[in-house]
Design brief:
alpha+beta; 4-stranded mixed β-sheet; 8 strands; 57% helix; 11% strand; Glutaredoxin; glutathione-disulfide reductase (NADPH) activity; transmembrane; transmembrane helix; membrane
Length: 275
Amino acid sequence: MPSTRRIKVFGLLVFISVIAVLFYKDSLRQERPRDLRTAGDFYSKTVNALQKDLKKGAAEDDTEVKARLQRLQDAAKQAKERANSKSPKPDSPSAIEGVGSAADGTRERGFAGRKKMTAREAQAPLKEETKEEHEVEVELNSILKKSPIIIFSKSYCPHSKQAKDILLEKYLFDPAPFVVELDKHELGAQLQAKLAELTKRKTVPNVLVNGISIGGGDDMVEMDEKGTLIEQIKKFGQKKILEAQKRTEEKKEDEKRKSVKKEKSGSQAPIHGLR
């Protein structure tokens, strides 16, 4: 049987051997190269996770931007609809009518080239003007340039004489009224027809102020009696009427003396309305 001393020595050697083996294994584990594949997998997983987060954030940002744009577009559309509902819509051409006589579908046409027509007539094809119609138009425009006040008359008509007496004898206008005797004019009948078309007055006298008919003989008498004749002449003649007043007896006598002097000197009063 081995002695106690030998057993102790043997146990010590075993213990030392175990310690040496453990140290050796530990040194081998420390010197062994790292597993790059494991490290790469960890890196890839980390990068992929970050990219997923970024994509998710970008998608959320895009969604938010689109939502904002949509809200702005909706707001702009609503504002436009509100503005359109408040603003008046233009009438269609067929619904537009003129003022006064033009409102009931009749045609209004001014003088000296000024025209006013209803929408229906404006859309209708224009009738070609004849040579005679052109001559009448030119002559009428020429007459209207003579004076702001035009008296279309007939030399034998008592109503025309009544209107001329009031406008030429009872009142003083500057420029003086211009008289057109249609029965002595080469285009008298055509001019009267044209005036009927334009002013809706077929008879004489027909008194025009600045291209607007203010009536006939009865109208002149009525305005004279009411004291509104000068007011009407100034209203339509505007700045073209330099003077408008009633003649006094003194002025009448003075003008008669001047007229007698002219007759004695051989001068003749101009006959208006003739070519």
